[in-house]
Amino acid sequence: MAGVPTTYAELKTSLLAWMDDATLTDRLGEIIGLTERRLSRKLNTPEMEASTSLAIVNGSAVLPVDFMEMRAAYIEYDNFRTELASLSPADFNLHYSTEYTGRPTQFSVSGSNMMLRPLPDLTYSVFLIYKQMLPALSDGNPTNWLLTKWPDLYIGSCIVTAAAYGFEDQRLPLVSSNAEALIEEVNEAGQKARHTSGPLVMRAPVGDNYLRRW
Fold it and tell me: In what order do the strands lie in the sheet with 106-110?
């Protein structure tokens, strides 16, 4: 194969060419998958963010399966948006009785659930902006934004992961150093994109009962 890989199949072919080790052929899917999990933890760019709305049932909502970190949370109702404040689990349990109802204003993350208080007095949905895991490559999902924009990071990081499977090469220290530098470059590019995407707007303080009309 010639050229830069743009699909899952091309990435596996490219990795075999770089590593020149046929014993790793059957482990390529695992190597790529483990690499994606590490990159999910290391990358912090706008492309890593997603949004969704969740149903609230008995004061809690199930978080998306690809959820990693919360960016923002809102309650939307009757053309009003209430921004939710985050509490630690200890403060959350200390300040709220399960008998207190109203429009939720605060939340805490517990396991794979988002707990909201006060308990809803009506039917609401919660809107999330969150950091998600890197969409995994597969035969059914042959590409993603990172492979499209930064194939060199995919290749270098996968080669570093392959070292755990016995791959040895005198280039490994250089490849590893380059992969870490690329992670910094991707994050810096993401921060530049985030802060130049529009004018800066000052935000008003958010209190328990603060409402913002769209």
Answer: 60-62, 113-117, 106-110, 85-86
pTM confidence score: 0.81
In the chain, where the domains are located: 8-43+136-195, 48-132
H helices of 4-56, in order, are: 8-19, 28-42
Q: Is the peptide bond before 135 cis (omega within 30 degrees of 0)?
A: no
> What are the tens digits of pLDDT across the range 128-157?
999 999 999 999 999 999 999 999 999 999
| Count of CB atoms situated within 10 Å of the CB of 46 | 12
Whole-number Cα distances in Å, 28 to 2, 8, 31, 111, 158: 19, 10, 5, 31, 9
Q: How many residues would you count in the chain?
A: 214
Query: Residue 61 pairs with which residues in a beta bridge?
Result: 114
